[in-house]
Amino acid sequence: MARREDQTTDDNIILTGFMGTGKSSVGRLLAEHLGYEFVDTDEWIAARCGKAIYDIFRDQGEAAFREMEAALARELGGVKKKVIATGGRLMLDAANAAALSRTGRVFTLWATPEEIMVRVANDTAAVRPLLEGPSIKARIQVLYEKRRAGYARFTPIETSGKTITEVVQLVLNHLADDAT
Ligand code: S3P
Prior knowledge:
180 residues, alpha/beta, Rossmann fold, five-stranded parallel beta sheet, 8 helices, binds shikimate-3-phosphate
């Protein structure tokens, strides 16, 4: 992969997109390439609470989790040189998006609902509370349609059929274009 030697800004790179679009995997590799620190908002929240996202939803409810996301977005509004993989809804909140957009470049990772289904089913590390229960396919489709316009506000990166390395390269290409 071409290394981005011309990285001259301290801007953060923020990744948004639906669950299962690869924000964390892509973010981790991208951070490595840029020599940036990687932050995963779900991981931070889980670490601070001492429990998994699924358990936070179950014990404290979704509203409490969204509050934690908002507090973290405000906090991250003051950091530099980070690649930030955000939970699937964090950047759809106007105040969160404003706080983070100010700090750098935002990309939406896209994947088709069909591919999201497969990825989420294969991701045994994360149990996603919003996709629990029967008819996961229908849940994904409804939520995807509801959120599509929100995700479309940011620079799109198509990930369907691509490897993590290929997706990272697409982001790096955008950053290189910005720099010229
Ligand atoms: C959510 C996405 C999850 C996590 C939580 C809610 C969402 O993160 O923040 O389960 O509302 O889309 P990922 O997008 O990393 O799965």
